[in-house]
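Hi Prof. W.,

I finally got the Molybdopterin oxidoreductase family protein prediction working! I wasn't sure whether to trim anything, so I left the full sequence exactly as given:
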Amino acid sequence: MREPELDLSPTPGDEVRTTTCYMCACRCGIKVWLQDGQIRYIQGNPAHPVNRGVLCAKGSAGIMQHYSPARLEKPMLRVGPRGSGEFREIEWDEALDIAAGWLGDIRTRNPDELAFFTGRDQSQALTGWWAQQFGTVNYAAHGGFCSVNMAAGGLYTLGGSFWEFGEPDWDHTKLLMLWGVAEDHDSNPIKLGLGKLKTRGAKIIAVNPVRTGYGAIADEWIGIRPGTDGLFAFALIHELLRMDRIDLDYLVRYANAHWLVVRNEGQADDGLFARDESGAPLCWDRARNAPARADSIDVNPAVVGEVALPDGRRAVPVFHLIAERYLDPQYSPDAVSERCGIPAATIRRIARELADTAFEQTIELPIAWTDAHGREHASMPGRPVSMHAMRGISAHSNGFHTCRALHLLQMLLGAVDTPGSFRYQPPFPKPIPPPNRPGKARQANGALDAAPLGFVHGPEDLLVDEHGRPRRIDHAFSWAYPLSAHGMMHTVIRNAWAGDPYRIDTLMMFMANMGWNSSMNTAETIGWLTDKGDDGEYRIPHIIYADAYASETVAYADLVLPDTTYLERFDAISLLDRPISDADGAADAIRHPVFDPATQPGPTPGTTRDVRGFQSVLIELGARLGLPGLVEADGSPKYRDYADYLVRHERAPGVGLLAGWRGEDGSLEAKGAPNPQQLNRYIENGSFWRSEIPESARYYKMANRGYLDWAQRMGFLGHGDPIVLQLYSETLQKFRLAAQGFGAQQPPAEHRDRVATYFDPLPIWYEPFEGAQIEDLPTRFPLSAITQRPMFMYHAWHAQNAWLRQIAARNWMYLHPDTGARFGIADEDWITVRSHIGAITVQAKFASNVQPDTIWTWNAIGKRRGAWRLEKNAPEGREGFLLNHLISDITPRGDYANADPVTGQAAWFDLRVHIERAEAPAAAASQPQFAPLELGTAGERPLRYGADLRRARALGDKP
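And this is what came out:
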């Protein structure tokens, strides 16, 4: 028998182009192999600093994202009721005329009548700047719905944060704790890092109510009850303090442990730092028995004990307050064990392991360095304990303080930016808090005086009117949510519908699926989008929506602007936004069009698409509106398109969105005049740029003279002063004092108790609001319900991807077998899950990888029938479901948003539920079901790809 001929070294294609993946927020480098002008294969780019050639299922499935049947084809204008899916296709000139007409009227009348909110767009350096030029304060992106507790908790404490802006020291850590880490962010770098740890035998502890992904390979899983991570952290801190296993030398050198805090109860300076005439904070010098500047290097500072200042006031060091608070028996392992669901013995053991690793297994790198005060050090000692945390601790109404608690734990161990610990990624660390405050006033040209988002330093920076009422439609930067650095996307639609604090005219959204999974409660949100006033007009008059795909929200738009796929566009992964740096180097990247969308086949055979990248659309709209910075003096457009903007725009002299190959000849980095060939240089270099941090500057960045000077040259810092880690936050105390009646800016009466309670300068823990405000909670709603983002999908985008759908095309409600027995439920029974505002009926599945008082499901797999052009009986729309139907956007009392009181972060992990067995619904479909949307369908035939390429190759191989 003749053996088949095998090609043992097939060529992936006849052409390869490098760009940046957009299948999640990881932003890996990819090689796109083409054959006869079509994609044949996507592989990871081995030269890329993010993924070093590794590529996940999502990245490989980018082929099916590019060829998705759900792709939009032309601009559309609504002709039927919102939600009907009745549109007429229009040309781009008409679409832009309509948009410019609506927006032009607003800008003339009141720019704040535009609410511009974007989702997972990774273009905030442009969209935020555009909103500033338009003059609206009502701009935000996805972070308030997702991660602002993480960002604010870190930036107000360390000058950096977890998430994508810091990383464990993968090469040196010996003990890693993962707190609430899902698999959808930064996944390939984390997988590479975990591989290093497993190879070296380092220990990994996963703290999460559910054990999936990274937790599945952890050496130990701590199945914690949702919302109690802060208590667990405090119990560890309690034990470390009790055992005297803390790094006091580190705390004095790099943190404010020795700074004196005034104790003057009932007075305007109570809880503020004692300062000298120049404003410098003071410590108590034990050698001189007198106050001294806390940044002096020739003092022997006290860290405990009350002292009398020369003016008669009493003061204590910050560390004294820490010991006073966390040594309290309420934080002992025995006291918190039952609430956290963790045995007290386990808490004590982990505390001992942290101490042993940090203090008995220290490492020392033989690298000389000079600190910010000019002292030379022969080596870099390190505490090889690292931590990483994400949404699981962030998306709670106590998430801000939980994030701060984790940072406090790190600092007590001396484990921030030392060898073996958590490490900053450039452009972090930043001053604490970062210097950029949110824009408040409009200039003569109509633009805001600063970007709409920023960091509040005190009550004077809030966006409130003379009566203390919010100025923003989402209530961000108000007395209700003062430090809402990312805005509050989850409150926009309710407030716009209610006219609170005023009516808006136009809601413009980009890649924000607020009509489905990116809302707190889907049915309510749909109601607000479609509700009309007494005059018969929609309460939100105009909705402009830009997306590449026929998502659920498209049906509720008045004007639809079709975006490109990520292989048809330019994008900047900018150092001004969400860069791809790692701890050893600064980096940014671009996407560039592998294809011209006009050449790509449309979803319907024989058709082509007329789509444009939203960034270019935004720039053209800005020019049509005559926005400052987007037009020349004669009124002509300043930029041809987004690519032209990327090259020529300067945020400050010599500073643009891209840091590589600057200067007219491309010889400069970070700062320099625009280079007309800059994009070509990126493309030639694999679509990324990276600059190494000098070896002597890679650790102790907050106080390393080499790093501070390098960061200042690169434009990351405005000055080279050291950044002092803030165990105790004076910013928070300023708000507490305002609530107590001190200062020129004070909260209205209804907010005083709230601000005084939650703006504690030291981390606190409190019961999440939903649980605290429901009467008879253990009886009525005894279980927590949470979602996990799967490693193989990202938000709603990928549950329409033909290849990824083969991994999962529906979701289940997972519960522990013991939980099933407790409620009389068998594996694969249908169950009713009830919260304080609603109920869903879904199918249960037993899984032992969940804490028994918690149930969980995958997020965003469930789809509304008719959306995303899935076949009409697609399992995503039939058995799939959202937990969002059970989540309220306001607290049970109805007084505030269901959000963190400090930052406004959406608290969708606070959900409490009851479950009971149910009869299988008709047609075995989850409930509730919504009327199908009329957005087209792909038909019922399987969607395949590659047969023609294989056939052509086979024919071409024949002699």
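The longest strand covers residues 839-846. Does that look reasonable to you?

Thanks,
D.
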